[in-house]
Amino acid sequence: MTTLGIIGAGNIGSQVARAAVAAGYDVVIANSRGPETLAGLVDELGPRATAGTAVEAAVAGDAVVVTVPLKAIDQLPTEALAGKIVLDTNNYYFERDGHIDALDKGETTTSELLQQQLPTSRIAKAFNHIPAADITTDGTPAGTPNRRAIATAGDDAEAVAFATKLYDEFGFDAVNVGPLSESWRVERDRPAYVVRQNAEELEANLAKANRLP
Predict the structure, then answer these.
(1) Per-residue pLDDT averaged across 96-114, rounded?
(2) Which pLDDT does position 212 carry in this prediction?
(3) How many Å apart are CA 158 and CA 113, to the nearest integer?
(4) Sheet holding 149-154, edge to edge
(5) What CATH number corresponds to the domain at position 177?
(6) pTM for the full predicted model
(7) 147-179: per-residue pLDDT in tens?
(8) Is residue 138 within 8 Å of 169, Cβ to Cβ?
(9) Which single residue of 61, 89, 90, 166 could bond 127 by disulfide (Cβ 3.0 to 4.6 Å)?
């Protein structure tokens, strides 16, 4: 049995939790307001789910989904996430996060910033370019014609393999973008962002992406 820690219980986090429970995972989910504020979601998810603090979700998770605003990554429990596979769902919204010069200039990616914050965690990009609602509604069995695909990226092979496995269990094909430095190809305003695409279409959208919008 695998336990998935989820830090962030917003649109993406709650949908990943629903899909994970449906796929047979135990889930420990945390938000910034405290476990007691997640009682309704945990009741909905059922006995496989519990609410905890960010540290508790990090410690409990065999792998951990980090789905907090980019501006909040400095509040993550770095020590508790040491050595863990971490799936990063983040996107850069300057309207929310404030302008980050290195991102505005295309000098880094959101996942590379998270890797700097979590230097010993094993990070893979995941679930950042699919609308949250589609995570639980658009998955289909492996081999389904025109099956939807989602991209992942990472510098750690095991992290990428876990993201790929999770995608398949949720009903999606995976396309590996490459290292974290290439994850800009699925960030906001690129051709692959929040559109439905199969693996072939996703690969084409990745190839035609420009570094700067």
Answers:
(1) 96
(2) 82
(3) 20
(4) 49-51, 26-30, 3-7, 63-66, 85-88, 122-125, 149-154, 173-176
(5) 3.40.50.720
(6) 0.96
(7) 999 999 999 999 999 999 999 999 999 999 999
(8) no
(9) 89
